[in-house]
């Protein structure tokens, strides 16, 4: 397979109407969509790009695929600089949100489409090494490995075989002419269909498929080409919740089996947390943090990451630092663990933002360090209960979310005392939003 490296990548689009004569160039200005993107996706890694709508994650995927041109910087796939290469020469397969199946073709024809246009002169050493790796992976999964279309023998000239294949394709199977290359394609299509459990759908048209089946066909079309890199642009967003969970697990399992480097774009942080080996969080065209799912959750680099990762999101409260370890709020004051002392020494007398996740807030007893709140909203999910609470005097309309055990008897309007777990508190600089390390 291959790693993908992005070096200082920028992307901007020209905006503005300008004059009809073209002399007023100042009316057209570049709008930066991506800035200072440094990202290395390791060989065989499942990397997830996550962020809010409009942050640039799909544009980044299109740059890697070659569907958009890079304004500045370099993109490498393996050891090749691909900036100037068209999409069909990058050895990359992309799965789109909208499936993008050919409606007039059967499932079989959709899967075979890319294989019939595969390059036949691909004999590079790295390609041969990749074929051996894929053969080993397929053997472990007990499926047929992809056939090298370039090495299939011909008994007729290429043009004659192409004419016979095309002319007999609509005939019953026993009357069709199958060249050696077409037989290799059929073998690869059957192997992919078996892997995705769509063998019984090969003769159907896309309009005869459910949403989940269409998505599996779209995945299969990408897999059939045996590319160096898979790119997936929110492929599950059109599926219902149950099917999304099933297909999500299937994609992860297939990626583990094939070992293909995969870059997956989503705005759903639950998908990101459950699928990715590592996650790159984007916002406003810049990468905020790249880390494993648990590292993002437990050690966010800034307030944006802390709020975006986690459902429900992290709670935030303004506090004042009083050296060495005391933090105060108009409604409570508490002492932090001793491990915070070196970090807080330089913030004495300054305002910081305290962050605490809902599961790290407990119902407790009255105390100066605890919060007096009133229940504004209650969500009982069976396995857990979420409370939305406000300070009892309604100061500033501040609302917090807390997760409590499901058998806890709580009703709307109840007055409670909540305690914060000191060892689970996060602190952020209110000016920069950057996290303050505990040690």
**If strands are numbered along the chain, what order do they take across the biggest sheet?**
6-7-8-3-9-10
Low-pLDDT regions: 119-130, 139-143, 147-153
Task: Provide the CATH architecture of the largest domain.
Answer: 3-Layer(aba) Sandwich
Described by the principal axes of the CA atoms, the overall outline is elongated
Q: What is the beta-strand fraction? A: 25-35%
Structural class: alpha+beta
CATH T-level fold name of the largest domain: Rossmann fold
* Rg calculated over all Cα atoms: 28 Å
What is the end-to-end distance?
39 Å
Mean pLDDT score, rounded?
Answer: 85
Number of domains: 2
Description:
- The protein has 439 residues and is α+β, with helices and mostly antiparallel strands.
- The protein has two domains: 4-291, Rossmann fold; 312-428, Nucleic acid-binding proteins (OB fold (Dihydrolipoamide Acetyltransferase, E2P)), CATH 2.40.50.140.
- 27% of the residues lie in helices and 28% in strands.
- The protein is built from eleven helices and 20 strands.
- It has helices at 57-65, 107-116, 125-140, 158-168, 180-196, 211-224, 241-258, 269-275, 293-298, 303-308, 341-344, and strands at 4-15, 29-41, 46-50, 72-77, 80-81, 92-95, 229-233, 261-266, 278-283, 286-291, 315-322, 326-329, 332-335, 351-356, 361-363, 371-380, 385-391, 399-404, 415-420, 426-428.
- α2 (107-116) packs across α5 (180-196), α2 runs parallel beside α6 and α5 crosses α6.
- The longest helix has 18 residues, at 241-258.
